[in-house]
Amino acid sequence: MMNGREISVDLAHQRLAALEWGPEDGSPVLALHGWLDNAASFSGLAPMLDGMRVVALDLAGHGRSDHRPAVCSHHFVDWVPQVIEAADALRFERFGLIGHSMGAGISTLVPAAFPGRIDRLVLIEGAGPMATPAEEAPVLLRRALEDERRVAKTKPKTHPDLASAVAARRRDTDLDPTSVRPMVERAVEETDGGIRFTFDPRLRTRSRWRFTEDQALAFLSAIDCPVLAIRAISGWPVPEDLMQARLAVIPDLTRVEVEGGHHVHLTHPERVASVIQRFFTDSRS
């Protein structure tokens, strides 16, 4: 893995940290990580993408970026304007977008909200935001607010050392110690008695609301650029009928399956790098 250049992206009301790879005059690409991950999740993949200037953001509340204000919540739609504001700050007028998992869900909303800004979209282990039937909205809101009250009273856990933090982040994932270590190093700080994670604890609460499935499909069908959907064979267990229905409405879609788990772009970046490289190169030829 290759460390990227550390940069800061100043938004109107927040500072986002980011890592950058590639030449300054390369094709502009923003990369959005998954839930509780950070920009370092692209440290294996990004250096393999020739001719591209890849900027991987630490989304709000993740990595080394600022947390959202206390009065704000976290939801897919809350990150959409930040993506475009970051692109504007970087002077990316029209750019490629690579999203993993939660980042893929966010990425599917951006083309519909800002038509013409995205020229190519890569979805790794994700296709749209999480959805909930409309009739479940009241219960969802109630449980989300209960989560928020609980988290507000919970003190962050202190780990005795980095190895303990790495083990905690690996739990119930396909990550190995070597691949996950850069992400953990980017997401911890020293404290009395050891180290602790710096991500916003509110990220562990349920969303106050979710899209309905019809709304999710509407956003997917409004994507106005070519899309490459990469799914890991041993990845996140999304129901096949749901995935098929979602991908079916994307107007210009290329679908690829690769060996690996949910974080295949981090654990085995070579398995997705050539596919992504070809997608960007062929689409722009």
Structure notes:
The protein is an alpha/beta fold. The chain has 9 helices and 10 strands. It has an 8-stranded mixed sheet with strand order 1-2-4-3-5-6-9-10, sandwiched between helices. The chain is globular. The model has no long low-confidence stretch (mean pLDDT 93).
Radius of gyration: 18 Å
What is the N-to-C order of secondary-structure elements (H for helix, E for strand)? EEEEHEHEHHHEEHEHEHH
Biggest sheet details: 8 strands, mixed
Number of helices: 9
Unreliable segments of 5+ consecutive residues: none
Spatial order of strands in the largest sheet: 1-2-4-3-5-6-9-10
pLDDT averaged residue by residue: 93
Calculate the terminal CA-CA distance, rounded to whole Å.
29 Å
Number of strands: 10
Instruction: Assess the beta-strand content as a share of residues.
Output: 15-25%
Shape: globular
List the helices and strands and how they pair.
Layout: E1 5-10, E2 15-21, E3 27-32, E4 52-57, H1 76-89, E5 95-100, H2 102-113, E6 118-124, H3 137-152, H4 162-170, H5 177-185, E7 188-191, E8 194-197, H6 213-221, E9 227-234, H7 240-248, E10 253-261, H8 264-267, H9 270-284
Parallel strand pairs: 3-4, 3-5, 5-6, 6-9, 9-10
Antiparallel strand pairs: 1-2, 2-4, 7-8
Helix pairs in contact: 1-2, 4-5
